[in-house]
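Today's session is about reading a structure prediction critically. Students often jump straight to the picture, but the first step is always the sequence itself: look for stretches that repeat, for charged clusters, for runs of hydrophobic residues. Only then move on to the predicted structure, which in these notes is written as discrete structure tokens rather than atom positions. Here is the chain we will use throughout the hour.
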Amino acid sequence: MKLVRLLLGASLASMAGLAHASSVEGPVPDHVELNPVAIGMFLVFVLVTLGITRWASRRTRTTKDFYSAGGGISGLQNGLAIAGDYMSAASFLGLSGMVFVFGFDGLIYSIGFLVGWPFVMFLLAEPLRNLGKYTFVDVVAYRFEQAPIRLLTASTSLVVVCFYLVVQMVGAGKLIQLLFGLPYWMAEVIVGALMVIYVFFGGMTATTWVQIIKAVLLLCGATFMAVTALAQFGFSPEEMFRRAVDVHPGALSIMGPGKLLKDPLNALSLGIALMFGTAGFPHILMRFFTVPSAKEARKSVFVATGLIGYFYLLTFIIGFSAIALLAQHPEFFKSAVGGHFNLTRDLLGGSNMVAVKLAQAVGGNLFYGFIAAVTFATILAVVAGLTLSGATTVSHDLYACWLARGKVNEAHEMRISRVATLILSIVAIGLGILFEHINVAFLVGLVAAVAASANFPVLVSSIFWRGMTTRGAVVGGSLGLICAVLLTLFSKSVWVDVLHQARPLVFLDNPALVSVPLAFAGIWVVSMLDRGARAQRERDAFVLQEFYGQTGILSVKAVDH
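Below is the predicted structure for this chain, in token form.
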């Protein structure tokens, strides 16, 4: 625990230096006022979670403890943790901000993610829990040739984790720079140091409880904000909408679709990415291995679905009430509403932090400090979960199961996990600093597209289609990954907005409309053409896999290769 105390001391010293950080590193923007309440609440959260990490470290002795909390998380606890994974700072600030800017159209992200849950609940939760061990890669590799399958799925998982970490780390830096007055690089280092502590010492147990605490705090804070905001309109949604229409530059158009996504094909493509990407996020799927049974896995999905749906409803109320209160509190909303929406610049790096500003408008400085601290806590929790997912992929899927072919000492595998945690954290900090001035909003869509195009088709086909073979999975998953990355590169989000070319090479802003069907087609065509002896053994093994997936009677055991 010496490292814990050392990093804690560094974090405390950094936070204590807030009062004079601006004089050392440059001026704090004039719209930033250092908030002692936010700083104090943030320090309390850090101290509590570090205490949990110390407790969890005493219970983390084996790889099962590190990767899946020993399978001892209840369905209710896991549901809260899954909901915590979804309730990131991008969701809280981003969704309410999109409603603030675009009105009704801002709901497309929340609806897309929520609609994706039935795929997880009805199709994947029980087979995942019964067939897998620590990651969804275990499930995909159950009856196939280990090396190519694990290399493909582990690679796509690391792509998702790394890109998502960049989004969260840039968001963390901008948020702390705006709210607390810290230099950007210092915020990146603090977030990186804390996520190392959570994962390195506490593993899945600490990460889960950090998510639970954050989820409860954020739900309570968002509920209080929505209720107090609605109280301004006599608890009448109709009055809130009427006044929002009166003051918004878009007037009545904010109550209908078409402001954010005018092209139906782009809307459909984004919807596909959000829906199927949900069932392909590795850091979400690995949480189903933390519960003791398939029954608890189903319970956790029900709990998470209810909490996530409720949270998205709150962001809808927060966004519209912020519009309606614009005329009453103009000092809190100085930035323009119109123009092109940019997640990082407008919500995490500018003055248009709608949810946080609304907290100050309806709850005063104390509530503003609470929401500011909780918003930063959401980033800490999410990056910890992503880091653990990436470390597990490296140590378990790539090293233990592929390179060492299962013949590895458990203590050595734990060391590999912790080394991977340190390396991922250093990479995340470096990329966060490197991407400080780059619009990373396109990475949000790319993460969902890669998960939907590369992970979801391979995972769902391996569970439910007898005919899939190793070659089909590798070709289909690779096509989905390559297509998603290339189409994103040639889209307006990157080709024009980042690379500053004259016009995009493709008309789709999100590639899922092309990449997801292409992945399924590649799996089907190549598998149907694969008539070798190896392919026939893989098809015959489906009966055994189906039995284990439905009953969970026997522990997971890959087919002998």
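Discussion point for the tutorial: The chain is about 75% helix and 0% strand.
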